[in-house]
Design a protein that fits this description.
The chain is built from 20 helices and 16 strands. The protein is α/β, with parallel strands linked by helices. The strands form four sheets. Strands 1, 2, 3, 4, 5, 6, 7 and 8 form an eight-stranded mixed beta sheet that branches. A three-stranded antiparallel beta sheet has the order 13-9-14. A three-stranded antiparallel beta sheet has the order 10-11-12, covered by helices on one side. Helix 4 links the parallel strand 2 and strand 3. Helix 17 packs across helix 18 and helix 18 packs across helix 19. The chain is globular. It starts with a helix and ends in a 10-residue tail after the last helix.
Length: 521
């Protein structure tokens, strides 16, 4: 079991986990017929909150909701408290406690309970206590989110884990153990490159990926004492013993047979029991990780999803065509997320809708508004192709793959670039604490460097972009002078390059909803 010392010595990156957000959970639950509490006035509990990287942005963007984060790592909680104090948040408490010693009844009732990155890495008694807390504290229409490693997909990964554990078995200090594991991975990088055996190919690929992962992930996934994957069916059986039922996966697309190969789908279609279907799909997908949603066993669920229900939500997405989208005919084309992940759509209406959503991102618009804009664009292209059923089907598929977001209400979040840009206090506070990540308005993670962090701290609404660039010139001169003293090699950008960089970053911040619609007073 992980100790407090290991988490304080090598913290796991605590950043926004998009699919734990209560708005996303509420939307998913509604698709299955539940009536969850509105996230804007809900009570949310996160077990294992670390420094609050996931729950603090939620609390900041949902001031009418109430949040409680629990963790036993005091040093990490202290970092979160610092950010909470900077933001002046009064709707969030971070509490130091060991889950196994918690009295569930004293916590009260919660509409959403999150336990990300805990289950597989704690002892069985703690696992049962997590379920006890959920069964005691979950509201009648509440949703619980639990992530965990699954079998049989984790078996191949365990080969690398056992190798690293054995090779570092004599080392006790976490930092030294991690450094040693890094050295071992480098030595193993080319060992199996020319071996055509299936296992050798897998090990080569896995080791190559691990050479570049974050320290916290490598240590806590591969070097901690406990990492116990579980069969999905066994996990659900344990949850049922606490009066809980399976609701869905946060990765909704994995629940559909159509995402399997034709041969694999034929092996599960005949199964009537949902849990058996899901378990068999794990076998066929060699799935190694799940993010499962639970509800109370007495909740009545409707699993006959009506795709037209998408009309009840507001929609946002940032998907750009890989090539210029053809709005004149039904032809499959790829649209890409900022991280490069591609999704294929075919109908001109869908392509037009995605193009409009990208232009206004991160705004969320009603389905009716989106459909109207899509019709207009397709008509301008000279096409006469109208299949609203296919539009709805493709939009739902993108939602199921989490490439498109549904929200409960339309939201205006993109205000362009004001003459005097002012970043929201959350972004400025995170930058002031030298965080390498920002939480965006869509609860995603935006990685930033030193320059971007300095720019954010200066964005208080009193400077133009040109003036911000001038301020950065002064800052970089001082920063470079310190590098020289320390023996570094300074590389100062030219004034024109710096201004262009500031303009690019300001536009990036605006596109992620991080700028207020302000003017200089």
């Amino acid at each position: 079991m992980a100790t407090i010392e290991t988490y304080d010595a090598i913290p796991y990156d605590s950043t926004p986990i998009t699919d734990t957000h209560p708005v996303y959970l509420a939307v998913l639950a509604q698709w299955f017929g539940m009536r969850p509490q509105s996230p804007h006035c809900a009570r949310i509990l996160e077990l294992g909150c670390s420094n609050g990287g996931n729950i603090i942005p939620m609390a900041w963007y949902l001031p009418g909701a109430t949040f409680l984060g629990i963790d036993r790592a005091g040093e990490q909680l202290a970092k979160g408290e610092t950010l909470i104090e900077l933001l002046g948040l009064s709707n969030l408490e971070l509490r130091r406690a060991d889950i196994v010693n918690l009295d569930p009844k004293s916590l009260g009732e919660f509409d959403y309970i999150i336990a990300h990155g805990i289950w597989s890495w704690v002892a069985p008694d703690v696992q049962q206590k997590i379920l006890k807390i959920i069964s005691t504290c979950l509201a009648p229409q509440g949703i619980a989110y639990i992530s965990y490693n699954t079998l049989p997909g984790w078996y191949p990964r365990s080969m690398v884990r056992e190798l690293l554990l054995y090779s570092t078995r004599m080392i006790q200090e976490p930092e030294v153990k991690l450094a040693s594991a890094r050295v071992i991975l480098e030595k193993l990088a080319t060992v199996w490159n020319k071996d055509d055996h299936l296992i050798a190919r897998y090990l080569s690929q896995e080791i190559e990926e691990l050479r570049h992962v974050q320290p916290g992930y490598l240590f806590h996934e591969y070097l901690e004492e406990i990492n116990t994957p579980i069969l999905f069916s066994d996990f659900i059986r344990s949850a049922m013993s606490h009066g809980l039922s399976y609701l869905a996966e946060s990765d909704l697309y994995t629940m559909f047979h159509s995402t399997l190969s034709e041969g694999a789908a034929s092996l599960v279609e005949f199964l009537d029991d949902l849990i058996e279907q899901e378990q068999h799909m794990d076998f066929l997908r060699y799935r190694y990780f799940r993010k499962t949603l639970l509800c109370r066993s007495e909740v009545s669920l409707n699993r006959n999803l009506d795709l037209n229900q998408i009309k009840e939500y507001a929609i946002s997405a940032y998907l750009l065509p890989v090539i210029s989208a053809d709005l004149t005919q039904i032809v499959t084309e790829d649209f890409a997320c900022p991280d490069g992940t591609r999704f294929s759509v075919s109908h001109p209406l869908t392509k037009a809708a995605l193009s409009y959503l990208a232009e206004i991102y991160p705004d969320a618009v009603s389905y009716n508004e989106l459909e109207e804009h899509a019709i207009h664009r397709v008509a301008l292209a000279g096409a006469n192709t109208w299949s609203f059923e296919q539009l709805i089907g493709e939009l739902f598929s993108l939602f199921a793959h989490r490439a498109l977001r549904l929200t409960l209400y339309p939201e205006k979040l993109y205000f362009g670039i004001p003459e005097y840009p002012r970043a929201y206090s959350l972004a400025r506070a995170q930058a002031a604490l030298r965080s390498e990540y920002l939480a965006t308005v869509r609860h995603t993670t935006l990685e930033i460097d030193h320059l971007a962090g300095q720019l954010l701290q200066l964005m208080d609404g009193t400077r133009t972009v040109e003036q911000l660039a001038d301020e950065l010139v002064v800052h970089l001169a001082h920063h470079t002078a310190r590098q020289v003293v320390r023996g570094g090699i300074p590389e100062l950008p030219q004034a024109g390059q710096l201004l262009a960089g500031c303009q690019r970053l300001t536009n990036l911040f605006a596109r992620h909803g991080l700028l207020e619609p302000n003017k200089k007073s």
